[in-house]
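Course exercise 7: structure representation. Students receive a sequence record and must write out the corresponding structure in token form. The form below is the worked example handed out in class, using Membrane protein (501 residues). Read each field label carefully; the graders check that inputs and outputs are placed in the correct fields and that the protein name is recorded exactly as given.

STUDENT ID: A-19
EXERCISE PROTEIN: Membrane protein
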Amino acid sequence: MPSTEDTSVHQERPVVRPTREDEISAAGSELIGGPAGRWARLGSGPLTPVRVIALVAIGMFALGMVQKVPCYDWAWFRGTSSQYTHACYSDIPHLYLGRGFADGLVPYVDRLGGDMAYLEYPVLTGLFMQIASWLTLTPSTDPMQQREQMYWMVNAGMLMICAVIIAVCVARTHRRRPWDGLLVALAPALALTATINWDLLAVALTAAAMLMWSRGRALAFGILIGLATAAKLYPVLLLGPLLVLCWRAGTWREFGRALFGAAASWLLVNLPVMLYAPEGWKKFYTFSQERQIDYGSFWLVITQRTGKPIDVGTVNTASVLLMIVLCAGIAGLALTARHRPRFAQLAFLVVAAFILTNKVYSPQYVLWLIPLAVLARPRWRDFLVWQACEVMYFLGIWFYLAYTTSGDKHQGLPQEGYQVAIALHLLGTLYLCALVVRDILRPDRDPVRRDGSDDPSGGVLDGAPDTVVLGQPAHHPARNAAPAVRGPRVEWGTAGGAPSD
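STUDENT ANSWER:
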């Protein structure tokens, strides 16, 4: 039984200083005066970690907007390869006209001209796009270029709010690690891809859901996951690892609340459109099924290298089977690991598996993984290695499109070069996945657990005893905890569970 003195240490755990435990963070801090000293007052005064992170997120987002200036001024509207050579392409201005928002058409209700009969986005994203069109107050008599520019600016402002929410939620999810949110705020791929599409809406709702779960609010978590799934499909995947972890810990009531909240909020958003405009509502799902092999996937590399097309039905089936196999492996890892994995670790692995096996990888899909990667493995070196791979892919796809649209000039990156960019994206993601798996098998290498913590962002899972462990006796986190490997050693709390934050 630990002493009273030990218990008081747990209750007063200080905020983790990244410059004291991360060599890359310490080296980078030299730009602003060096690592925090012994008498540094972190979290006090007007510049708290959360406020600093919010300001940095706004600054980085603004830099990303500046990077789009060549397209904003002229490249979007000339319809040439210039928007690719300047790496500033965005769907937003093109779809303002192409999906009927400029003409006042109602998403999912009014038919569009051409091959795209209805808007091919989930309902909540369609609502986001519609609200932005309402806020685009330029008169219909203005030139279309000005209207598209204003529509992009309105969307950029709304997406900036989403980006700040993501960074702040990550900063608050791990109570003792608020500075991890700086990884999100400074992520180069976030700045570059934030305004390509509307993915940040779903990412913000997912990040807020993770924060709610870390606070033990299972119903709020479920509601937010349901709303996120109504904006993009991938957030529903988080219910899978949560199911496995709640099974292992025996916390079925909390999982039931989360599942109920997710189903209820998703239905609340989707049911009116399903009933009033069923053909428009199902367009997103039929489009996803019928979509051919597209940019960024290893399926594209296979078809390009072999010169043989693959039937879309075959790819759909193979992708689903691969995803099932990977999810089964992740579930097996979660149920057999000596120490129960953290929720963020499994959430990252599942979404990464979906991205790796999918038949398309748009450059903005990296946004799905950024907050999960930070929560799963908050280490600057590994995060930046992965981000470097994603930035190379970001440049690779635009230069490849420039090559394919520049005619006889062949201005850009040829097919073989683009395949290298795809390989870098795949290898970078696999590298981060391998590190997360290693952390699960060896908790002493996990940056979050180095002080003896169990799952600080796991809500009811944090410190909960195991009830189901395959292949070995069930263990209690108080006996399972990885010992601290650097800095002052902090023991676990009483036998009743992990200490509070």
